[in-house]
Design a protein that fits this description.
Layout lengths: L10 H20 L16 H9 L4 H12 L12 H12 L4 H21 L16 H11 L1 H9 L7
Helix pairs in contact: 1-5, 1-6, 1-7, 2-4, 2-5, 2-7, 3-5
């Protein structure tokens, strides 16, 4: 993979996402096979289900917005309000039977895709206000950066480490 460069406002977002995903992948590749079939701290989900959620393009809004921005397409405002619970359930059900290496490969692929899209954003994209988003693109990605979605789920996988 080539070294990517990012607009100044995108760089901290990309860095946070990369660090969080790297930590998640390190854990995922080091956990025992038996670990993944154990119940998780999330009601009705196993540890594998958490990984399946993350591998399924867990943040559809991020991917939808980035795909639209980088393709120069007008974003359908309805695409910014998905039925997240139903979509999560569908994607987890589809992926829970996948072997662990396939889940990890999808985590890596999706992450590379997101970082690639982020590298295509420029300084002007920060102030765009797509219809239906309710904020600028820069404000949205600041929330994404601060959310640390991968780390939230990593803490569910290893609840003894709540130090981040």
């Amino acid at each position: 993979m080539s070294e990517r460069t990012y607009a100044t406002w995108v760089d901290p977002v990309a860095s946070a996402l990369a660090d969080d995903r790297r930590e998640l992948l390190e854990f995922a590749t080091s956990a025992s096979a038996a670990f993944w079939d154990q119940p998780s701290s999330v009601d009705a989900w196993t540890n594998r289900d958490i990984l399946a959620h993350l591998a399924g393009g867990n943040d559809l809004l991020v991917q939808t917005l980035l795909g639209s921005l980088t393709a120069g397409e007008t974003l359908d405002p309805k695409s910014l309000a998905p039925d997240t619970d139903a979509e999560n359930a569908r994607r987890v059900a589809e992926r829970r039977v996948w072997p662990l290496p396939r889940l990890i490969a999808e985590l890596e692929r999706d992450h590379d895709e997101v970082l690639g899209w982020l590298s295509q954003l420029d300084e002007h994209d920060r102030d765009l206000r797509p219809e239906g988003l309710g904020m600028t693109v820069g404000e949205f990605f600041r929330i994404v950066q601060d959310e640390h979605h991968d780390l939230v789920h990593l803490h569910q996988l290893r609840p003894e480490r709540q130090d981040k």
